[in-house]
Design brief:
Elements: H1 9-17, E1 20-25, H2 28-31, H3 51-54, H4 57-62, H5 64-79, H6 85-93, E2 99-104, H7 110-113, E3 119-121, E4 124-131, E5 138-139, E6 159-163, H8 172-183, E7 187-191, H9 203-209, E8 213-217, E9 230-232, H10 236-247
Bound molecules: ligand BV8.
Ligand BV8 is lined by residues 26-29, 31-32, 37-39, 55, 105-107, 123, 163-169, 192-194, 196-198, 217-220, 222, 235-237.
């Protein structure tokens, strides 16, 4: 595949040798699948609301139906989108490594649909719903009601999306595992994230501190750009397939 990306030889050598690879991904890797990032304008009913305000326990407390419907709309959106070349490139890259982990901030499940097997979801999953009162009680099916939020069949509390809201702790197991894999990797890719949301934004710095090569892939600069070992300015759906192709030349 011809590509107009000329990769630094040092990057190609490091990526060719890397057997333990970690891909950290943010909303930007799903942008080319048509899913708006949190920085893009929201659509419809929620257009004038900042997602950072909506993705909070306070918003759900204040207006559970409004927040529930925002997630129901985003879940519905998932039915119509597909993984893109960036997701597939990561799934293919894993074939040439002994250990390839995806650590994602995304809740859209597209890495799994593209065939990635080791996926750590730091912020939960849009496709899952749980009881708002019983912490880890994921509910497989529920009845969508026109005028109210579905309730837990067990305890009658509202159901809620099984995602991590702002101000909520990340699932500890996922975070610990993510910290472990980045610190013991040969190569870390930071793809499509504004590197602003904590504690996910700390992960590339853990890798750098452990002497691991960190490659950022983003059309824009981010707070990580100055510190990354390499920073590639471009969309993940083009850069990742081109980088993977360059490894097999
Ligand atoms: C916690 C699930 C602590 C929900 C998400 C003040 C008040 C309150 C909290 C805080 C505060 N200051 C700091 C905090 C902590 C807060 C935080 O980091 N805030 C920041 C923003 C200031 N973090 C938290 O609250 C976390 N929890 O800290 O708990 C705690 C301690 C003790 C006890 C209790 C609690 C929880 C954070 C998780 C929030 N949930 N998602 C849902 O999805 O609805 S985060 C959500 O927003 C996304 O998952 C994503 O991670 C994040 C950012 O979204 P986007 O901007 O859309 O995406 P991203 O940042 O990845 O940017 C897109 C990038 O892609 C851009 O750079 C763009 O250039 C690039 N791009 C675009 N196109 C492409 C591309 N790249 C490649 N290819 C392309 N084609």
């Amino acid at each position: 595949m011809s590509s107009d990306f000329a990769f630094d030889d040092g990057l190609i050598q490091a990526a060719r040798r890397a057997q333990r690879v970690v891909a950290l991904s943010g909303a930007g890797i799903s942008a080319e699948s048509g899913i708006p990032t949190f920085r893009d304008a929201q659509k419809g009913l929620w257009a004038e609301f900042d997602p950072m305000e909506l993705a909070t326990p306070e918003a759900f407390e204040r207006n559970p139906k409004f927040v529930w419907d925002w997630y129901a709309m985003r879940r519905q959106e998932m039915v119509e989108v597909e993984p893109n070349a960036g997701h597939y490139a990561l799934a293919n890259w894993a074939q040439r490594c002994s250990d390839f982990s995806v650590v994602t901030q995304n809740v859209d499940g597209l890495h799994q649909r593209a065939g990635s097997e080791q996926v750590i979801e730091l912020h939960g999953s849009l496709l899952q719903v749980r009881c708002s009162a019983e912490e880890h009680k994921v509910v497989d099916d529920w009845l969508e009601l026109p005028d109210e939020v579905p309730r837990c069949a067990h305890c009658e509390a509202y159901l809620r999306p099984n995602v991590v809201w702002f101000g909520e702790m990340l699932p500890m197991g996922a975070l610990l595992r993510a910290e472990e894999v980045v610190a013991t990797a040969d190569l870390v890719l930071s793809i499509g994230t504004s590197s602003l949301v904590q504690p996910a934004a700390q992960l590339p710095y853990r890798a750098l501190k452990a002497g691991v090569t960190v490659v950022e892939i983003n059309p824009d600069e981010t707070p990580l750009t100055a510190d990354a070992t390499y920073s590639l300015r471009g969309p993940a759906g083009q850069v990742l397939p081109a980088l993977l192709a360059a490894l097999s030349h």
